[in-house]
Amino acid sequence: MIHTPNEAIVETYGNKVRVRVCGICVEEDKVVMVKHVGLGESGVFWCPPGGGLAFGESVSECLVREFLEETGLHIIVGKFLFAGELLAPPLHAVELFFEVKVVSGNLQTGHDPELAGVIAEVAWLNESQIREIPLGQIHRLFHHFQNLSDFLHKPEQFIFFAQRKYS
Asked: Which strands, in side-by-side order, build the sheet including 157-160?
């Protein structure tokens, strides 16, 4: 029996490689972020919107769907920015990050159809607000960039977001 979101994640995604597609949406020096609850050691985890690529779904289709589900925003997918890998057995994910632009909609707290109740908040966060989030509560990609413009202006690169244990 599954009791916590962490257990649900391991049950659903454990012991397989998962491809995730994520969007970096920066406007007026703020980035769209999703706050998940019940995940990780502290029970709070902030990250850009995105999710798992379904069989037969294009990368763009996945990202448009995930953004709408999680944030209520309709987007267009722009250029590829960078890729990362999370290797935290039993979890293993390859993440593809793309620039996205909002075309319509209002930012609102959405849902994750695979894990009910884990999305607590969505927000436009500026650099100082992001720096206030403890490192264990924010996606590791924020450890690799000095500022928000780095996301959009660095050459395409691969980042290894390794961690050796999953909590």
From this structure: 50-52, 16-24, 91-105, 73-88, 157-160
Q: Where are the domains of the chain?
A: 5-160
pTM: 0.87
Alpha-carbon gap, residue 22 to 83, rounded angstroms: 10
For residue 54, what are its two tokens? Answer: 């379904």
What is the per-residue DSSP string for 103-127?
A: EEE-------TTSTT-EEEEEEEEH
Q: Taking a C-beta distance cutoff of 8 angstroms, is the pair 94, 20 a contact?
A: yes
Helix or strand run (H / E) with residue 80: strand 73-88
Positive/negative CA dihedral, 113, 117, 118, 122: positive
Is the CATH code 3.90.79.10 the one for domain 5-160?
Answer: yes
Please tell me the distance from the alpha carbon of residue 91 to that of residue 29, in angstroms, as a whole number.
32
- Residue 100's DSSP bridge partners are 77
pLDDT-derived band at 38 (thresholds 50, 70, 90) equals: confident
pLDDT in tens, 89-136: 888 889 999 999 999 999 999 998 877 778 999 999 999 999 999 988
